[in-house]
Design goal:
The structure is a homodimer. The longest helix of chain A has 30 residues, at about 80-110. By secondary structure, chain A is mainly α. In chain A, about 35% of the residues are buried. Chain A has helices at about 5-25, 30-35, 40-45, 50-65, 70, 75, 80-110, 115-140, 150-160, 165-170, 175-190. Chains A and B meet through helix 9, helix 10 and helix 11 of A and helix 9, helix 10 and helix 11 of B. Chain A binds a DNA duplex through helix 3.
DNA sequence: CCATCTGCTTGACACTGTGTCAATTGACAC
DNA sequence: GTGTCAATTGACACAGTGTCAAGCAGATGG
């Protein structure tokens, strides 16, 4: 839990990520994680006080591993609002499949566990800020479609790009990732661009 | 569980619906339901073999109470595809808040329980058929926007109108029901109508 | 060489919620 | 009375999280 991770902590977090990514929605228990990390179940609690704390630490670990910040660079660098929107949709839509295992575990836990819910909401708030920036850039260019306020447009974009929607389209409706991405680009444009 | 309900079964189902509707997302245990129905927890199992079976029975009970079929009449009666789409969005968007408690319980359960997941998927399949009919009516009129196939348009509309999206906008982002409804009407039009 | 600290182990246990089982009761019917 | 039906009480199994105590192996240091 310290900001600098011990070797064992790294092993635990790596094991967690591997299990969440491969399990494809399967429940991952503390004992599964312990076994995968090669230690006893109780030893996990010596490093992370609860399942929720472990999941939160794992998201940070995931960000570190995936370089989540760097992904947003193209979006920030975009000149026009339209470009910024497209770059943001692309960045986020491409990130979702990589974090899906994690997200799924969080969303399941958040159903009962307020701490998990808060941690997830916080991350989604960050994501919303990206949406907001894209919408603002559109508005600045005078390219934001009429009918929705900036706040409403932000919320709509944020909802459109939700993990649940990705899950519905790619998992339940078997869309390919490419199709999903293209549809999100097109949808965002139709909803928000004048 | 028989097609005709005993008095106790009716009391159990009514209690279930009341708890799910008022609890606003709170976990509803078998013991809560039993207490609300004025019987012992074990007695509930004399009528419904499992929590999942009880939830499924409760959805049918809810349909009966809310007259879910009648709601779709305006959509079916619509002359143009545009009207049909608007009527369908209105009917479904208005239904969601009434079934939300139920839906939430199902979705939470579906995370672990395949039977619950299947029951929910089945109901969402019905909902998708409504979307499909609206899209087909649009296409028939030549009013379906280019860029998406009928199947894709159906999936997009279905996703747009998902319970999770309603939850995100009205619960997390505090949109009023009216605002939600208006935004869905407008969004469906922008996404699908030429 | 012994003491102690650290990181881990094993094993037991509490708690929650679902689902099962057995023995019992009270009422109503024939 | 006897049978039967709905419900009761109480106990228990099971899974998964989280806690606690006792012990052990290896490194550090006097």
């Amino acid at each position: 839990m310290s900001s600098t991770l011990s070797e064992t902590e790294t092993r635990i977090l790596d094991a967690t990520l591997v299990l969440l990514e491969n399990g494809d929605g399967e429940a991952v228990r503390m004992s599964d994680i312990a076994k995968a990390a090669g230690i006893s179940r109780q030893a996990v609690y010596l490093h992370f006080p609860s399942r929720t704390a472990l999941l939160i630490a794992a998201t940070h670990h995931l960000d570190r591993r995936k370089g989540s910040e760097a992904r947003l660079a193209p979006s920030r660098a975009a000149k026009s609002g339209r470009e910024r929107l497209a770059a943001y949709v692309e960045a986020w839509a491409t990130y979702i499949p990589e974090i899906y295992g994690m997200a799924k575990a969080f969303l399941a836990r958040a159903e009962k566990d307020t701490a998990a819910a808060e941690a997830w909401d916080e991350r989604m708030e960050d994501m919303r800020e990206g949406c907001e920036a894209a919408v603002r850039a559109l508005a600045r260019d005078g390219d934001l479609a009429d009918g929705f306020s900036e706040a409403e447009a932000t919320d709509l974009l944020w909802t459109l790009l939700s993990v649940r929607n990705w899950e519905l389209l790619t998992k339940t409706r078997s869309w390919s990732q490419e199709r999903y991405l293209a549809a999100m680009q097109e949808s965002a444009r139709r909803l928000l661009v004048r």
